[in-house]
Each structure stands twice: as structure tokens, then as C-alpha cells.
Design a protein that fits this description.
49% of the residues lie in helices and 0% in strands. The chain starts with 8 loop residues before the first helix and ends in a 19-residue tail after the last helix. Helix 2 packs across helix 3 and helix 5 packs across helix 6. The model has no long low-confidence stretch (mean pLDDT 87). By secondary structure, it is mostly helical. The longest helix is centred in the middle third of the chain and has 10 residues. It is built from six helices and no strands.
Length: 112
Amino acid sequence: MAQRLALPCADLGAAYLAGQSTLALGRRYGCSPTTIANHLRACGVLLRPARYAAVALDEAALRRAYLDERRSIAALAAMFGVSPGTIANKRRRYGIPARPRRAPPGNGGAAA
């Protein structure tokens, strides 16, 4: 059966507001960061924003640059100031079809 932790709101809130993370506090109190976050909310402490903020990319601009201009994922990532993974995720989310991979050099000709 799960054990109920009695975490002191004053100490927990003070440590969090002083800059400690939910991960560090979880290690200190022997529980998960989620448990710490739940206790902080119950204590009325406003949590800091998540580590990664949602990135807004213009769908039309991404579609045009990827399909019409045929820019690479790496080039798009540099252009929009995000990671290549973010570009790939947004492409899938927006329903932009993947371009076919290019054939390796030397495999394009017919056999003689």
C-alpha cells in the first residue's frame, strides 16, 4: 500500500521558491518530482513554467519552405531557430507529407 508523505508546506515551498527543482526536492524527500509538484500545488505554491515551452511555427511558412523550396530539416531548424526534431514533429502534426529520399549516386541508371 502506498505511504502518504507528510511534507511541510513551509519548508517545501521555501526551497522551491528559492530555486530548487521538483527533481532535487523529490530526491531530498525520497519521492517523485510529480509528488512534489502535487504537494506544492496543494500548498498554494505557483509552479514555474515547464522546461520546454510550446513553439509556434507558421504552418504555411513551414509547408512552403519544406515542399516548395525543398529545404532540408536541418536548414528549416536553423531558419526557425528550433531543433530538427521540432521541425519533424510539426511537419507530422500539420499533415505535411514527407518528401521521398533521394536515390544514392550510381543507382539511377538502367542495367546494360
